[in-house]
Amino acid sequence: MTEQTPLLFTDLGLSEPVLQAIQSVGYEQPSPIQAAAIPALLDGKDIVGMAQTGTGKTAAFALPLLSRFNPEQREPQILVLAPTRELAIQVAEAFQRYASKLNNFHVLPIYGGGDMGGQLRQLKRGAQVVVGTPGRVMDHLRRGTLDLSKLQSLVLDEADEMLRMGFIDDVEWILEHTPKERQTALFSATMPSQIRKVASQYLNSPQEIKIASSTSTGANIEQVYWMVSGTNKLDALTRILEVEPFDGMIIFARTKNATVELAEKLEARGYAASALNGDMNQQLRERTIERLKNGKLDIVIATDVAARGIDVERVSHVLNYDIPYDSEAYVHRIGRTGRAGRSGKAILFVAPREKRLLYVIEKATRQPIKHMELPTGAAVTAHRIDQFKQSIQQVFDTSVDLSFFNDLLADFSHQTDRSPEEIASALAYLVQKERPLQVKLAEIRPEKPSTKGKNKLAREAKAGKGPKPRVNDSDLQRYRLDVGRSHEVRPGDIVGAIANEAGIDSQYIGHIKLFDEFSTVDLPKGMSPEVMQLLKKVRVRNRPLNIAEDTGPRNDGPAPDFKRRGPKPGDKRAPGKFAGKGKPDGKGKPKAKVRDRDVKNKGYRAKKV
């Protein structure tokens, strides 16, 4: 049987300048999405490509479109829409790299937060490729500063992410303001119905390219988790950073405030760390990513949106300090490492009450996540000793002239009658005084999940006591629950049920308002369908929550109080038509009252008083 010859970029029909450029960066063999998409785009066909992040999608559309590039045309020939500023910059940089052998080529990234004046000047000078976020592209089209009349190709990159971020209406508006005869390529990791609708409406008989994957995450990414107690997370993190050999690392936190706090704590411990979140201006965010690329930063603590599109080769590790509520967010997070065939490692911190979220992620990714052992004090000691020995050896390896120090220490030994070993020990102590070689660490035991409310955090949450860290309203969404005051429900019951049953920490459960027949609660945005299904079945006072997004008006005024209800003046209804405090129930008997102490976990019984 003849062995099949591997497909090379030279076999795909790309132009000579483009081939020279990709050979200069060391590319030889195309990835599956590139091998399928490049010939179709070279033939001028519309395509719908489904592939996970990190599979080489940018080259899949950039290489063939650049091969059809017309250097004589100054107006935009190619428009790429991307969901985030970071991804827009990354795609623009890739175009610049692949077009390095082309003459008179100009690419321009345009995005919100960037210098509008600079973008206007560059558009006026001419840019054949424009890469932008939907909002800023719309701004330029409305101003008349972006001319798409001669557009040849349009790319929708990470379309499902643009849908998730609420940009899909903007995308459709832009599509309607582009030439009908354009070529269109749509790339998406998943294919929700709205994305499929866009494809059928705006693409011309597209060729579907689906890159099957045995798992949703890269096989070259080692995935582990540690069951951690909330109070010990920082200690666990610093132990891992101490022993784990990493080059660059991205640590994911749920909120913007958490990224800043964690960055400050790591900096105080001597790590080159910085936050990356949406509150930072674009210039600072770009500078942070550049510092990570060139090795001036080793650790970036980021939110999901801020880290979207980051492709830094030296990122060897991703650590999920806070577990994501959405399995797709987990896949995107760990996709920041192990890219383009490189190996990587993903570490996940899981609180006991969040174990269900771990199962959801394992089920969605079709990969088991192994339990990891936290480095012991002995392991940290051994690592520090090894580093200390290496630093001494490096001095000898560099052939430094030590004669002055030899004479100095010989003189000190003679004066004090100290042996060379004693003097070396004293010097070692001075050098390592701030970072002792002998490490004694208290054992960190993972907190066991409690089903009886013994956990202190759960008890405080149920009692309405204890400090509760603020979560930005922009990170929350309002949901409606089918339980209310008439069912004798209290806020603590709702907090306890959601925290214990769905694994959502109480600090991420926002404002709760009780009404007679229902309640509302603010919970984190972007919860996965699996978590929503779990919450629907959770029971409070023996009633299912039946959670759903709250579509009613957002009224922040006081909730109705059934105790104040009663007949209005002139109301001729029978007494039994209402049930207020101390009112007859229609049978001549006083309505039963309910004491809090009589309320049981699985319902309640009323006592007359």
Automatic annotation (TrEMBL):
Q: What segment(s) does the record annotate as region Disordered? A: 446-476, 545-609
Q: Where are the compositionally biased (Basic and acidic residues) regions?
A: 561-574, 582-601
Q: Give the Helicase ATP-binding domain ranges.
A: 38-209
Q: Which GO terms describe its cellular component?
A: cytosol; ribosome
The main location class comes to cytoplasm
Alphabetic keyword roster: ATP-binding, Cytoplasm, Helicase, Hydrolase, Nucleotide-binding, RNA-binding, Stress response
Give the reactions, separated by semicolons, that this protein catalyses: ATP + H2O = ADP + phosphate + H(+)
InterPro entries with a match to the protein in the record: CsdA_RRM, DbpA/CsdA_RNA-bd_dom, DEAD/DEAH_box_helicase_dom, DEAD/DEAH_RhlB, DEAD_box_RNA_helicases, DeaD_dimer, DEAD_helicase_DeaD, Helicase_ATP-bd
Q: Name one Pfam family in it.
A: Helicase_C
EC number assigned by the record: 3.6.4.13
Biological process, per Gene Ontology: cellular response to cold; ribosomal large subunit assembly; RNA catabolic process
| GO MF annotations in UniProt | ATP binding; ATP hydrolysis activity; RNA helicase activity; RNA strand annealing activity
Q: Which domain of life is it from?
A: Bacteria
The DEAD-box RNA helicase Q domain covers 7-35
First-tier enzyme category under EC: hydrolase
Q: Where in the cell is it found?
A: Cytoplasm
Where is the motif Q motif annotated in this sequence? 7-35
Q: Does this UniProt record's set of keywords contain RNA-binding?
A: yes
**Sequence ranges assigned to domain Helicase C-terminal in this UniProt record:** 233-380
Family statement: Belongs to the DEAD box helicase family. DeaD/CsdA subfamily.
Summary of the function given for this chain in its UniProt record: DEAD-box RNA helicase involved in various cellular processes at low temperature, including ribosome biogenesis, mRNA degradation and translation initiation.
> What name does this protein carry?
ATP-dependent RNA helicase DeaD
What species is given as this protein's source?
Marinimicrobium koreense
Read off the lineage from the record.
Answer: Bacteria, Pseudomonadati, Pseudomonadota, Gammaproteobacteria, Cellvibrionales
Underlying gene:
deaD
